[in-house]
């Protein structure tokens, strides 16, 4: 083929710039709108982007894309694919490829590719950039695995993709490691923290990420949390690689603590020492329940397996203490009392325990079985129990998932037990008021929100500066702003102030940061919102509500696919979610243009006036104008003066095109 197709000028191409995203699910974006492209076209662009000159010969491309085909068929397929790419470009008055004889190149004046940008960034070096900028550049470029979701059941192309996925993954981790080690000044901490979390998503054993997070926590005065991160690093390396941390990581930990045991004791609330003859305080005086996690009863002689079971127990202890809804007796103290007493019930009384978590370890048909049982100490009722089988081969995938599910189930069981016993309103404890307020917030109507606010205020009259109640109060402010579709920001600013107060009262509870993240999102402080949610997730990694909020923030900040991934993690931990989950998921699907999925997500709240706007837009986009008009009438019945353009002041989208997309749906529904 002697034909040559040369690029148009950069000035002409700049009018409709193309963005090709090959990290994560591939996307072909023209002027902000996603367009269709053949799957193998994405692979061809990846082949070109991976080369130093952004070009490759036809024979190179052919051997990768159709290496299993005969030469004539492969040549014909390549010609057709190039023709399709060029035709798609012509729709937008663009030339995407330069064809010069046997060489195919990317027209970089018209097309930017994240994979190519990453490779160029590495080749050019980033040493001259500040540590914060290096971290931000890597965060912006790396949005997931190369060509995620692609597979052709063809050996040549599949092998090329797997090899390049592994190579680019290693390149990313190497580049991130260098950036994290350089992030020593406070100005780089926020970007470094987010990059460390992303690195651990890619490689859970990368010590540079743990070290960076330990340094950041220490600089911010949270030495206890830094040591818990080190503990997680040790367990992960032992479980997945069978090795201890490196000398560099051990030296950093040694500088933070005197003894491991003392550090672990700081991560949970210690029982108040009391004489054995002293009668335990009544719950109405103490206000919050006390939970004891007993060490595992083991019939396994293998030391490594017993240590793994202790790792489970440690994770459960730390995880429960992060919820801050109950006092968690340190495992060491509980074991000392339990083993030093001939009567376990007497030991429980000494510690003033309301709930006990018994754990066990025993052999299973394949591997081992770890059991957990939650008991109400007052009446010996078993509230919840589960068993999970594991082997060392499957432990890496089992540990985090099972721990998260166990934590969520135990928290729900305790909350239900606390609410189940009828208590006169005059005898409500602060904790009961807190739970009642949270229950009311599961609805999305204004009356429930304001009733919840009263409950949180009553909790604060019983226990001034009760962090969880301050968090609840902050949430009611944000919820009311959203449900009423307000334009003035006074409630949001009050929510930020309350959430910041709660965070200062209890710096280990991610829920305060979650509420601040929500309020900052609706104040359109997107970066601050994402930062709040990232830090909240680091504090409470198994809190489904934090993950759901993070998903919503990611979507409104312009990354709905990452938001959907985060939302799915939240649903794994909370499979029967409250109303706000449905609203958030419906919004994400609408943003992605999947209107049928949006309607399905909104079904549990389709009778709520608060979601009528979104339902109207979805049904209108699907062409069901009769149903769309119905939802429009619901909107107007609650907000008589509502107009679609008003959404600009309400919906906190970073990208204007996302807001225009929503307004378009509302106008189609007759809300113009």
TrEMBL record:
SUPFAM superfamilies this protein is in? C-terminal effector domain of the bipartite response regulators (SSF46894), TPR-like (SSF48452)
Q: Where is the Bacterial transcriptional activator domain?
A: 113-257
Membrane: is it a keyword of this entry?
no
Matches recorded under PROSITE patterns: TPR
Domain of life per record = Bacteria
**Transmembrane domains' residue ranges:** none
Q: Does the keyword rRNA-binding apply?
A: no
**Gene3D superfamilies xref list:** Tetratricopeptide repeat domain, Winged helix-like DNA-binding domain superfamily/Winged helix DNA-binding domain
Task: For this UniProt record, give its keywords in alphabetical order, as a comma-separated list.
Answer: TPR repeat
- PANTHER family tied to this protein: TRANSCRIPTIONAL REGULATOR REDD-RELATED
Write the protein's name.
BTAD domain-containing putative transcriptional regulator
Q: Which organism is the protein's source?
A: Dongia sedimenti
